[in-house]
Design goal:
Blueprint lengths: L5 E6 L3 H12 L4 E4 L6 H6 L1 H19 L14 H25 L3 E3 L3 E5 L2 E4 L4 E9 L3 E3 L25 E5 L3 H13 L2 E6 L10 H13 L3 E4 L3 E6 L5 E5 L5 E3 L1 E4 L3 E3 L32 E3 L10 H16 L13 E3 L5 E5 L2 H8 L2 E8 L2 H5 L6 E8 L5 E7 L3 H13 L4 H5 L17
Parallel strand pairs: 1-2, 1-6, 2-3, 6-16, 8-9, 8-14, 9-10
Antiparallel strand pairs: 4-5, 5-6, 7-15, 11-12, 12-13, 17-18, 18-21, 19-20, 20-21
Helix pairs in contact: 1-7, 3-4, 3-5
Length: 448
C-alpha cells in the first residue's frame, strides 16, 4: 500500500495542470486534479481561445467592406452580437468537454471544487476532505487586477467581457497591454466607439518601439481614441443608463462598458502555501527554481502563478517537464529565450527574440534591416495601412537576434521564422533563401 492517496495532486486544471496530469498518468502515476471553476483554465475558458474567436468574428467587418473592391456586392449587411457571443461560448463548452475527456481517458481523477495546501504532502478540498500526495503541483494561473478607485464595481475585466448581453455603443478600456489592445481592436471593428486610457503614454510595453508606433498610428486612423497619463479615478452610474468615466484630470467620458485590462496577478490568495513553508514573491508569485520546484521539495508550481512568462505554451512545457522529471526519469529545464509572442490587435503584431533596443544594450554593434511595405491585399482594397518587418542582427556574427512584424497574418508567418532565430541562423541564411512570391512573408528574405 502506498503511504499517499496520490502520487501527484494538481491544483488547477488549466493548460499547464492538464498537461502535467496527463503526462504523469502516462508514466503510471496515480493522479488527481482539482479545479474550482471550469476545466481548461484561463486560455480555454476566458482567455486566448474565445478572444481569438472574437477577433476572427470582428475581422469580417473589414473583409466585407473590402469585398466590393474584389467585385462582390453584399446587400443588407448587419452584425448580431448575440450570435457571435453564443457561438463562442458554445465552443468553449466543447473545449471544456474535450479537456475533461483528456483527463478521463488518462484515468486522472478530477474534483470540481477548490483545493488548498494543508502541508507538504496534504491537500484540503472545499468539501472538507483532506487527501495526501507524494507531490503537489500548483497550476492556478493568474487573475485580472482591478485597481482601487471609486466605482470600480461597475467595471468588468477580461473574465466577464465574453458574456456581455449586447454590443456596447461606447467602450472605455483602461490599460495598453495586449489584452487592452486586442479588445480595443475587436470592439472598434464591430462598430463600438472605443477610448483607451492609460497611466503612461506607452502601449504594449516590451515590444519593439517601431511596431508600437505603427500600431498606434493605424488604430488612431481607424477611430480608436487614446488618453494618456490619466488612469481612471472614478466611474459613476448614470440615471439614463451607462456610466461616466473620469480619467485623471481630463474631461469625463460616457461609456456603456468599462473594461479594466491593467495586468494579471498570480492566483495565490488563500492557497495555504504557508502551511508548507512557502513564501510568496513581491508580486504574489510562487518562487521556483529552474525545475519548477518551490521551497518545499514536494511542491512544484508552473504557469502564470510563478510569474515567469505568462503564455499558455510556456505553462504547457513547464507542466510536461515536471511530470517527466518526477515520474519519467527525464529531468530538464525550459528555455525562456526566443519565445515567440503575438498581439492579436488589428493589425496584429508578432515578435521573437531581442528588440532593437535590447540588442543594442546587450551586443552594442547591431544591424537593423527593415521592410516598410503596403500589403497587396491592402492595395487592392484601397487601404493605405502599411506593414513593417524588422530583422535585428548581431553585426559581429551576422546571427539574427530578433524578428518583429506588424501586418496581416504576422503571427502565422512568425511561427516558422521563430525556428530560425532559435536555431541561430544568420542574415546570410535568410538572404540565400528563395522568396515565395507573391506573399508578405517573402519580405523576410528580401531585406538588404
Amino acid at each position: 500500500m502506498s503511504e499517499f492517496d496520490y502520487d501527484l495532486f494538481v491544483i488547477g486544471a488549466g493548460s499547464g495542470g492538464v498537461r502535467a496530469s496527463r503526462i504523469a498518468a502516462s508514466h503510471g502515476a496515480k493522479v488527481a486534479v482539482a479545479e474550482e471553476y471550469r476545466i481548461g483554465g484561463t486560455c480555454v475558458i476566458r482567455g486566448c481561445v474565445p478572444k481569438k474567436m472574437l477577433v476572427y468574428g470582428s475581422h469580417f467587418a473589414e473583409e466585407l467592406q473590402d469585398a466590393a473592391h474584389y467585385g462582390w456586392t453584399i446587400d443588407s449587411m448587419r452584425f448580431d452580437w448575440a450570435t457571435l457571443r453564443d457561438t463562442v461560448l458554445r465552443d468553449v463548452d466543447r473545449l471544456e468537454t474535450a479537456y475533461t475527456s483528456t483527463l478521463d481517458n488518462n484515468r486522472v481523477e478530477h474534483f470540481h471544487e477548490r483545493a488548498t495546501i494543508a502541508g507538504a504532502h496534504a491537500v484540503r478540498l472545499a468539501s472538507g476532505r483532506e487527501v495526501t500526495a507524494r507531490y503537489i503541483l500548483v497550476a492556478t494561473g493568474a487573475w485580472p487586477v482591478m485597481p482601487d478607485f471609486e466605482g470600480n464595481q461597475y467595471c468588468i475585466t477580461s473574465n466577464e467581457v465574453f458574456h456581455l448581453p449586447e454590443l456596447p455603443e461606447r467602450v472605455v478600456i483602461q490599460g495598453a497591454g495586449y489584452i487592452a489592445m486586442e479588445f480595443a481592436g475587436i470592439f472598434n471593428a464591430l462598430g463600438s466607439k472605443v477610448t483607451v486610457v492609460n497611466r503612461s503614454d506607452v502601449i504594449l510595453r516590451g515590444y519593439d518601439e517601431a511596431l508600437r508606433d505603427r500600431l498606434l498610428q493605424i488604430t488612431m486612423a481607424r477611430g480608436i481614441e487614446y488618453k494618456f497619463h490619466c488612469p481612471i479615478t472614478k466611474v459613476e452610474q448614470r440615471d439614463g443608463g451607462g456610466f461616466t468615466v473620469t480619467p485623471g484630470k481630463k474631461d469625463p467620458i460616457p461609456a456603456d462598458v468599462v473594461l479594466i485590462a491593467t495586468g494579471r496577478r498570480p492566483n495565490t490568495d488563500g492557497l495555504g502555501l504557508e502551511n508548507a513553508g512557502i513564501d510568496l514573491g513581491p508580486g504574489g508569485e510562487i518562487p521556483v527554481d529552474e525545475f519548477s520546484k518551490t521551497a518545499c521539495d514536494s511542491i512544484y508550481a508552473v504557469g502564470d502563478v510563478t510569474d515567469r512568462v505568462q503564455l499558455t505554451p510556456v505553462a504547457i512545457r513547464e507542466g510536461h517537464a515536471v511530470a517527466d522529471a518526477l515520474f519519467g526519469g527525464e529531468k530538464r529545464t525550459i528555455a525562456y529565450d526566443c519565445i515567440p509572442s503575438a498581439v492579436f490587435s488589428q493589425p496584429p503584431i508578432a515578435s521573437v527574440g531581442l528588440t532593437e533596443g535590447e540588442a543594442r544594450n546587450r551586443y552594442g554593434n547591431v544591424k537593423v534591416y527593415s521592410s516598410d511595405f503596403r500589403p497587396m491585399k491592402n492595395v487592392f482594397a484601397e487601404r493605405h495601412e502599411r506593414g513593417l518587418y524588422k530583422l535585428v542582427v548581431d553585426a559581429n556574427t551576422d546571427r539574427i537576434l530578433g524578428i518583429h512584424m506588424i501586418g496581416p497574418d504576422s503571427p502565422e508567418i512568425l511561427q516558422a521564422a521563430a525556428i530560425a532565430v532559435r536555431a541561430g541562423l544568420t542574415k546570410a541564411d535568410f538572404d540565400a533563401t528563395v522568396a515565395l512570391h507573391p506573399s508578405m512573408a517573402e519580405e523576410l528574405v528580401l531585406m538588404r
